[in-house]
Amino acid sequence: MEGYVRSGRAVVVLLVLVALLGGTSTAMAQPPSPAPPPNPSDGELQRSRDAVSQQAVAVGRLTTQLADLDSRAEELNMQLAGRREIANRALVDMQNAQDAAVAATRKAEAARVETNAASAAIDAAHRQFDDFIAVQYQQALGDGPLGLLNAATSPDDLLDRAQLTNVIAQQQKQALDGLERARVDKANADSRARAAQEEARARADQAQRAKTAADDAMAQAESAAQAQAAQLAAVQAQRAGVQNQLDAAQAADAGLRGQRARFQEWQREQQAAEAARERAEQQAAASRVASAAGSPRAAAGSSSVQRVIDRAMSQLGVQYAWGGGTGSGPSLGIRDGGVADEFGDYRKIGFDCSGLMIYAFAGAGISLPHYSGYQYTSGQQVPVAQRRPGDMLFYSDGGTIVHVTLYIGNGQMIEAPYSGSHVRVTAVRTNGLMPYATRML
Q: Which residues fall in a compositionally biased region of kind Low complexity (predicted)?
């Protein structure tokens, strides 16, 4: 749409020059009444032409300045969205670290239970051995193993008593072996418990560091958002001033005002046609997504690529919400403490850039993390010049990936750009474009 606006403004300048330089003398020759106008001198005609020419040049300069300011405002909005995408990464890292800490703590608790059980086993084995020794000491010498043999009355009785002595010795050995096994099990359990406890402490420290990093990232995003919001306000104020100058210049000539009105009508027609085209594409894509929902998913290939593109296209017009978007569709945004909050993203159901990719690729059974930087390394990386429909394109700011879009072919991509906007199709931008695209299918 931006291309339409710039080319349309260029047309305005050209038509102004043609209409005013070539057709002004005819308009001025029309009398305000049936009486003929006075015949102007050659000098008056030349001065009129010079004044109109200078006005047209001023209009052209102001129109170009307006286009530059619009481009700067778009760039600032994209930078703001990029800062919040970096905060997304910190939130994902923090959640992963916290989950790992919880798992390590549970493991340590299980190890403590195992240690307690091993201690109980030692106590039981020790009691069994003590009981056996006590019984042996309580028996008289004649009742002990040696006494049993001495009291034999016949060879058969001696054999029976020898077997009984072996049984007693075996029981003593079993009691000693049980005690030793219990001690070994206790030592192993203690070792595992110490390792689990150390892992739990390390994971907890890692989770704390991740939380600190997330808090810092959110604070930086908020600070950057405030600074860039001030820049954006300044740009918008400058644009308003230029617009006022342009309006004043256009108001100085009735022909120019008429030309402006015709241009605005043309622009409205173009916008209506573009909106109708987007509605048709969104409805067609949504219909294909609904039809595919009941059929088994095909193997990776052109059909899967089309399914991914259709799911993204089916969300055309859905509002931007920072932190929004799941594999099931748009979701409630989250707070960022800055510009996203000013736009009320945390009250909106929608997508941010990486959230839109999560939803699109879920249609092909592919799960993606909610951060564009991690999505960049989720698949095969190919030179961006070799991109094809279904590839993800990435944009960086100072070497850090801050935005992701889906390439749909013919130099076009679909994206959820920034707070206050909506999911849209636009031409592929080259400013900040990463040298590689990511191919998942």
A: 282-304
Strands 349-350 and 380-383: unpaired
* Assigned token pair, 37: 């106008």
CATH topology of domain 297-439: endopeptidase fold (from Nostoc punctiforme) (3.90.1720)
| The token pair that represents 122 in the structure block | 């030692």
Rounded distance between C-alpha atoms, residue 421 and residue 77, angstroms: 10
Task: Please check whether residue 425 is in contact with residue 356, taking contact to mean a CB–CB distance below 8 angstroms.
Answer: no
Instruction: Write down the mean pLDDT value for the chain.
Output: 76
Helix then strand then coil, in percent of the chain rounded to 5, is: 70, 10, 20
Q: What is the pLDDT of residue 18?
A: 38
Alpha-carbon dihedral 25, 27, 30, 36, rounded to 10 degrees? -20
The set of residues, in sequence order, having a beta carbon less than 8 Å from that of 205 and lying 6+ positions away, is none
Contact between 147 and 90 (Cβ < 8 Å): no
Domain ranges of the chain: 297-439
Nearest-CA neighbor of 2 among 433, 318, 428, 426? 426
Tokens of 9: 């403004």
Structure tokens at 416: 């959820």
| Higher-confidence position of 166 and 14 | 166
Catalytic status, residue 353: yes
Q: At what angle do helices 302-313 and 254-293 cross, to 10 degrees?
A: 130
> In sequence order, what E strands does 6-112 have?
none
Q: Looking at the predicted structure, is the pLDDT value of residue 40 above 80? A: no
Q: What is the pTM of this model?
A: 0.56
Q: With bands split at pLDDT 50, 70 and 90, how would you rate the model's confidence at 72?
A: confident
Q: Is the Cβ–Cβ distance between 406 and 348 less than 8 Å? A: no
How many whole angstroms separate alpha carbon 222 and alpha carbon 83? Answer: 9
pLDDT at 214 over 60: yes
Closest C-alpha to 255, from 3, 39, 48: 48
Q: Let me know if 141 is exposed, middle or buried by CB neighbors in 10 A (0-12, 13-18, 19+).
A: exposed
The two structure tokens encoding residue 395: 């944009």
State mean pLDDT over 315-337. Answer: 94
- CA gap 358, 356 in Å, rounded: 5
Catalytic residue among 85, 199, 222, 353: 353
